[in-house]
Design brief:
The structure is a single chain. With 302 residues, the protein is an alpha+beta fold. The protein is 63% helix and 12% strand. It has 7 helices and 6 strands; from the N terminus they run H-H-H-E-H-H-E-E-H-E-H-E-E. Strands 2-3-1-4-5-6 form a 6-stranded mixed β-sheet, with helices on both faces. Helix 2 packs antiparallel against helix 3 and helix 4 packs across helix 5. The longest helix is centred in the first third of the chain and has 70 residues. The protein is elongated, with a radius of gyration of 28 Å.
Length: 302
């Protein structure tokens, strides 16, 4: 391009080009860093799933081999029973059946447990697929969240394991879009999702619930732990971003369904909004109340 035709002084033109290159370079670097971080985290999650599946398979192989040996011995002993001594043979058969009954029942229980564990790990694998990924933020979409909840409820109903759920919503997001534009709004959603994903554990499931709402499913987490996590996350967002968030937290209870659990968390979120926003509320099954957690400034996010 002939810069003299545009009547732009060469030093100014070079400065403009350099500035543009610097801006795009920084943006590209930031994007690459975010992609690298997400790749590392996803790799750790995949390794965790692989390790769990390998553990399940190893334990089943070991139990099946042991049980096969017991069954073979049972078959040999039964084949040696004398048909002519029916009374003695019957008593011996009862003893042999009693001996093998306990390990057989144990194996059946173990296989049932393994089925549920494999189902949970399958749900974790599903979160890697594109149909369960929100295209804008890269976290799970509502389908991925639904699969995660189904898996957690199955584990809770079978083994009594606990889990919690949190809903977070950006405060005054409509104002952000109106004043800064939707492109800036999308960038804020992406940055928020990145921070959620960064702060969550590998076993947690982060999902975009809709619009500016995000859900985090936290396995093996009681109400206290979920409240501490929620408050730390709220403080981190307020410190590192130009927005604030409000949150609602609920613990899965007996008789719950995904809808009732989400409804309680949403009710807590509504109370947080009504209380002035930039806060986290929790619902104990009867009512919602503000989370009261004292955090040291330097432990905003452990």
């Amino acid at each position: 391009m002939d810069l003299s035709i545009m009547q732009i002084p060469l030093p100014v033109a070079l400065a403009v080009v350099a500035t543009i290159g610097y801006i795009f370079g920084r943006r590209s670097k930031k994007t690459n860093e975010e992609s690298a971080f997400r790749s590392r985290r996803e790799l750790r999650r995949a390794q965790l799933v692989a390790a769990e599946l390998e553990k399940i398979a190893w334990e089943l192989r070991k139990s099946l081999a042991s049980h096969h040996s017991s069954v073979s011995k049972f078959r040999e002993r039964v084949s040696k029973l004398n048909d002519e001594q029916q009374e003695a043979s019957w008593k011996e058969l009862c003893r042999e059946a009693e001996d093998i009954l306990k390990p057989t029942l144990h194996l059946a229980t173990q296989i049932g447990n393994a089925y549920e564990e494999i189902r949970q790990q399958s749900a974790n694998l599903m979160t890697f697929t594109e149909v369960r990924t929100d295209p804008l933020t890269g976290v799970n979409n509502r389908r991925g969240m639904a699969d995660a909840l189904a898996s957690q409820f199955a584990m809770m109903n079978r083994y009594g394991t606990m889990f919690s759920l949190a809903i977070f919503d950006i405060d005054h997001f409509k104002r952000v879009n109106d004043e800064r534009g939707h492109l800036q709004g999308d960038q804020i959603l992406q940055e928020l999702a990145r921070l959620f994903d960064e702060c969550a554990r590998e076993t947690d499931v982060v999902a975009r619930y809709g619009g500016e709402e995000f859900v985090i499913v936290m396995p093996q987490t009681d109400m206290e732990g979920a409240c501490i996590f929620g408050e730390r996350l709220r403080m981190k967002i307020a410190t590192e971003m130009s927005i604030t968030i409000s949150g609602g937290i609920a613990l899965a209870m007996e008789g719950d369904t995904p809808d009732t659990l989400l409804s309680r968390a949403d009710s807590a979120l509504y109370e947080a909004k009504s209380a002035g926003r930039n806060s986290v509320f929790c619902h104990d099954g009867r009512q919602a109340s503000a989370v009261q957690v004292e955090l040291v400034a330097n432990e905003t996010m452990a």
